[in-house]
């Protein structure tokens, strides 16, 4: 309320200036400013989910950091902050996509004679599930069309998957044997899920497992 006794300023008097607003706090280097829901909780997971969707829909060559960021609703700088380059985004997406495959039961400690069926059943259980199949298809399609993606996939599979299985085999040339087994399984993947050639594409998965398990077993433990 205005005090009636207070003198009003005359024509030549200056009003008291309003205090200047405090300067905005400076952002630390390294993390970009949030935009469109940017660097909030779960941003990293949203970026990975968007990356898998983009790689699946467009392949490695046509996927860009900007496109991944747009789909995730973040600034492109945030993608670089978490993952670096597109190659590193793809490598992290591979690892996330292959997590179900890495949860492989111990083949040789349960029943060495049934390792072929166990490996085939575990492998195709993952591919038959639409939730786990979609990101794996993105990886396979990208690797088929782009050498950088193929090299990243080879390195990951050799380091994390084949090495583990080969370490459980007490046989000569264990790594080579596992590669033969995996190549057999990946061949079926290409025909059934990628190219979709009949009758492989619509065959009952139990029939496929029954047919391929003895071949996988021979690769793993046969003469």
UniProtKB/TrEMBL annotation:
PROSITE patterns: HTH_TETR_2
Official protein name in the record: TetR/AcrR family transcriptional regulator
Biased composition (Pro residues): 1-10
Highest taxon in the source lineage: Bacteria
Domain spans labelled HTH tetR-type: 41-101
Keyword check for DNA-binding: yes
Annotated keywords: DNA-binding
GO molecular function, one term: transcription cis-regulatory region binding
Ranges of the DNA-binding region feature: 64-83
InterPro entries, A to Z: Homeodomain-like_sf, HTH-type_TetR-like_transc_reg, HTH_TetR, Tet_transcr_reg_TetR-rel_C_sf, TetR_C_16
Annotated PANTHER family: HTH-TYPE TRANSCRIPTIONAL REGULATOR RUTR, TRANSCRIPTIONAL REGULATORY PROTEIN
Bilayer-spanning residue ranges: none
Residue ranges, annotated region (Disordered): 1-44
UniProt organism field: Streptomyces xinghaiensis
């Amino acid at each position: 309320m205005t005090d009636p006794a207070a003198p009003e300023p005359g024509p030549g008097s200056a009003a008291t200036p309003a205090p200047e607003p405090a300067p905005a706090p400076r952002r630390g280097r390294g993390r970009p400013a949030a935009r469109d829901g940017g660097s909030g909780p779960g941003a990293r997971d949203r970026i990975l989910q968007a990356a898998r969707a983009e790689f699946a829909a467009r392949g490695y060559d046509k996927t860009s950091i900007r496109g991944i960021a747009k789909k995730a609703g973040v600034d492109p700088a945030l993608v670089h902050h978490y993952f670096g380059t597109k190659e590193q985004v793809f490598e992290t997406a591979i690892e996330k996509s292959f997590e179900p495959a890495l949860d492989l039961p111990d083949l040789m400690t349960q029943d060495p004679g049934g390792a072929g069926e166990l490996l085939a059943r575990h492998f195709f259980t993952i591919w038959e599930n639409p939730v786990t199949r979609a990101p794996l298809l993105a990886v396979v399609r990208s690797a088929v069309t782009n050498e950088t993606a193929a090299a990243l996939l080879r390195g990951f599979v050799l380091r994390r998957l084949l090495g583990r299985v080969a370490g459980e085999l007490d046989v000569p040339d264990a790594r080579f044997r596992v590669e033969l087994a995996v190549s057999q399984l990946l061949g079926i993947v290409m025909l059934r899920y990628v190219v979709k050639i009949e009758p492989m594409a619509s065959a009952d998965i139990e029939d496929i497992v029954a047919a391929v398990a003895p071949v996988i077993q021979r690769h793993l433990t046969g003469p």
